[in-house]
Amino acid sequence: MRHRKSDKKLGRNSSHRSALFNNLVTSLLTYGRIETTETKAKMMRRFAEETISWGTSVSALIAKGDKATPAEKAKILHARRQARLTVKTPDALQRLFSEIGPHFASRKGGFTRVLKTRVRKGDAAPMAFIELVGLAPGAAAAAAE
Predict the structure, then answer these.
(1) Could you read off the pLDDT tens digit of each residue along the chain, which spans 145 residues?
(2) What residues are paired with 119 via a beta bridge?
(3) Cα separations in angstroms, 11 against 5, 40, 132
(4) Among 53, 77, 90, 138, which has the highest number of CB atoms less than 10 A from its own CB?
């Protein structure tokens, strides 16, 4: 029995699920909005929020630039390494710490939203957009190219 088990397995083993969510978070940070199944979007939200919080936690320290102390530079390095565990491309990682982190620095959470969109034609799966709150998706896609 699966009593008190909160995560859905999505028909994948744990390493495949982990890779799936890492790739979805990387795409979200790159493009600002992605469309996926509703279940994947809801489960991926937790990973995205955690990754974005690494960017917001050091945004004030990054703004100091060269005036940061060695301890503050160590915190920035630690945050980048922790985010790099999830974010798989250098462009998305750079965008996380240069644009997304400072944008959400004043928020405590709630960086993403899930919007239900349609039913997929082939298998009738409910689809949803997951997007970063307050960032224009079109501008993100243009910056990524």
Answers:
(1) 888 887 888 889 999 999 999 999 999 999 999 999 999 999 999 999 999 999 999 998 988 888 989 999 999 999 999 999 999 999 999 999 999 999 999 999 899 999 999 999 999 999 999 999 988 665 555 555 5
(2) 126
(3) 15, 12, 27
(4) 53
Amino acid symbol at 86: T
Residue with tokens 């960017």: 55
Structure tokens at 81: 């390494």
